[in-house]
């Protein structure tokens, strides 16, 4: 379901040895679904698979590359001024450290480990739809065709 250019990039950065797009989508979907109760885990894995496979929602590059592999680095970076929903209200990311109970997209609080990599130069990126993102100069991007 990826075009030739996207497949080439995915092979270099995201696929595990011998893996293709379908297998990556299942690996990531199964890993993400582990946050759900065991009795509905497969149902959620199938839903996550469909979203990822059809590129309706694509997790960040570190998640695509590392989820389900045993590598612990899954989270993409946010700027220090990004507001994070915690059990204690909205808190800037630069003020978080260690394990923090943060609100997931599904409205459920989950423990997340926060680490600061210090002050870094950020660059402003404006998307075609005029959304604005800020990222470091070495930030990786998954581009689909």
Characterise this structure.
- The structure is a single chain.
- The chain is of the alpha+beta class and 145 residues long.
- Among the domains are: 4-66, no CATH class; 83-114, no CATH class.
- Helix content is 29%, strand content 19%.
- The protein is built from four helices and six strands.
- It has helices at residues 4-13, 21-33, 41-53, 61-66; strands at residues 83-86, 89-92, 98-103, 109-114, 123-126, 132-135.
- The chain has a two-stranded antiparallel ribbon with strand order 1-2. It has a two-stranded antiparallel ribbon with strand order 3-4. It has a two-stranded antiparallel sheet with strand order 5-6.
- Strand 1 and strand 2 (89-92) form a beta hairpin.
- Helix 2 packs antiparallel against helix 3.
- The longest helix is centred in the N-terminal third of the chain and has 13 residues, at 21-33.
- The protein starts with a helix and ends in a 10-residue tail after the last strand.
- The model has no long low-confidence stretch (mean pLDDT 85).
């Amino acid at each position: 379901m990826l075009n030739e250019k996207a497949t080439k990039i995915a092979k270099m950065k995201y696929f595990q040895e011998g893996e293709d797009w379908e297998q990556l989508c299942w690996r990531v979907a199964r890993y993400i679904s582990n946050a759900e109760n065991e009795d509905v885990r497969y149902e959620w894995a199938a839903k996550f698979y469909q979203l990822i496979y059809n590129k309706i929602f694509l997790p960040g590059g570190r998640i695509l590359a590392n989820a389900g592999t045993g590598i612990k680095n899954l989270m993409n970076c946010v700027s220090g001024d990004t507001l994070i929903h915690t059990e204690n209200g909205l808190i800037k990311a630069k003020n978080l450290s260690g394990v923090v109970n943060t609100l997931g997209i599904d409205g459920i609080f989950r423990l997340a480990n926060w680490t600061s990599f210090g002050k870094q130069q950020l660059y402003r990126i404006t998307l075609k739809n005029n959304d604005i993102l800020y990222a470091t100069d070495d930030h990786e991007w998954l581009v689909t065709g």
